[in-house]
Amino acid sequence: MSDLSIRIISADEHAAFIAARPSASFLQTPGWAAVKSEWKAESLGWYEPANPAELVGVGLVLYRQMPKVKRYLAYLPEGPAIDWDAIDLGRYLRPLAEHAQAQGAFGIRMGPPVPTRRWTAKTIKDAIAGGQQPRLGDVRPDVIEPSGATVANQLRALGWKAPRVGEGFAAGQPQYVFQVPLADRGPDDLLKNMNQLWRRNIKKADKMGVEVTQGGPEDLKAFHQLYVETAERDHFTPRPLPYFEKMYSAMATQPAGCCDFRVYNAHHEGDLVASTIWIRVGGHSWYSYGASSTAKRDVRGSNAIQWRMMSDALESGATVYDLRGITDTLDPNDPHVGLIQFKVGTGGEAVEYVGEWDLPLNKALYTAFDLYMRRR
């Protein structure tokens, strides 16, 4: 079969294609280009040669310029949105490489939304308690996804390279995430699958009068104040308020209704105790950002707001509630293990994806950029 044709498409065409799919990453919606406005961006569409009007795949490409040289890294976060089960992925990826090179790219990085392995909450809990396997990847998975190995083998054959963990210029998106399957489940099923602490905390928040409501752009300032407080407490660098204002404006107003973007607030006796950002594209919903107050931790606002978002995801028809990234550490003495334990309490599963793959188009410039990113 001949390769597909590829060309730049409009935001409306892009959004309409995403809206018609069962699911796709919010990082592949056209609105994400406006969030990452410091990058050059374009929407690409793939077409069957026999039917030039038949759009069969889309991708949001972000171009990051190399210092002092007008050459770019072409980045497709958690994408592109193509048929990853295709017998020949080269039909999609060869035209992508040609197009990116013509646009001045020295290399491409993409993150295929293809899972490879899954671990249940019980398996992870037992592994942490056992203390014999310091990394999630060392634990025998409950499910091995055959599509993951198939895609990885095709990518290698096409010249793509999987970044080694901890090396090379920074991977943008996590390879390990934690998700709660929602398909064929009701609220009672979700509660039953949670651990006893989660169920008790949800019940306690309700008993203590924690109220969770859906907010709007006017709530972003309060969200950000709580987010900065969370960053100071948990030792990470917070994003500035304008980033979230831009995010709300870009993501909540996308064409064709391809993305549902919400702010949630949890109050206790008038005090904001937790605030979050929730996103849904098709059947996939995400807990994207979260913040909680240091005071009144005992009212369990974080559990209450997670339960509300999970319940709303279920009601909206989502089949997955995604709590986003986790590290792969299972060492009880590692401070990062607390995040995994919090998410494991939801009763979901850890999912490993194939990760972010690179295609060097100009090896000299690719190596130079890699060295630059290592030294930053």
- Total separate domains: 2
Q: Specify the number of helices.
A: 12
Assign the CATH superfamily of the largest domain: Gcn5-related N-acetyltransferase (GNAT)
Structural class: alpha+beta
Strand content: 25-35%
- CATH fold category name of the largest domain: Aminopeptidase
- Helix coverage percent: 25-40%
Computed CA radius of gyration, to the nearest angstrom: 21 Å
Q: What summary fits the major beta sheet?
A: 9 strands, mixed
- The string of secondary-structure elements, in order, is EHHEEEHEEHEHEHHEHHEEEHEHEEH
Regions with little confidence, pLDDT below 50 for 5+ residues: none
Please tally the β strands and state the result: 15
Distance between the termini: 44 Å
CATH class of the largest domain reads Alpha Beta
Average predicted local confidence, pLDDT: 94
- Known CATH architecture of the largest domain: 3-Layer(aba) Sandwich
> Going across the major beta sheet, what is the strand order?
7-6-14-8-13-12-11-10-9
- What general outline do the C-alpha atoms trace? globular
Write the layout of secondary structure elements.
Layout: E1 5-8, H1 11-19, H2 31-35, E2 40-48, E3 51-65, E4 72-76, H3 90-102, E5 105-110, E6 115-120, H4 121-130, E7 143-144, H5 146-157, E8 176-181, H6 187-193, H7 196-207, E9 211-215, H8 220-234, H9 241-251, E10 260-268, E11 271-281, E12 284-292, H10 301-315, E13 320-325, H11 337-344, E14 349-353, E15 357-360, H12 363-375
Parallel strand pairs: 4-5, 12-13
Antiparallel strand pairs: 1-2, 2-3, 3-4, 5-15, 6-7, 6-14, 8-13, 8-14, 9-10, 10-11, 11-12
Helix pairs in contact: 7-10
Protein name: Peptidoglycan bridge formation glycyltransferase FemY
InterPro entries: Acyl_CoA_acyltransferase, FEMABX, PG_Glycine_Bridge_Synth
Keywords: Acyltransferase, Cell shape, Cell wall biogenesis/degradation, Peptidoglycan synthesis, Transferase
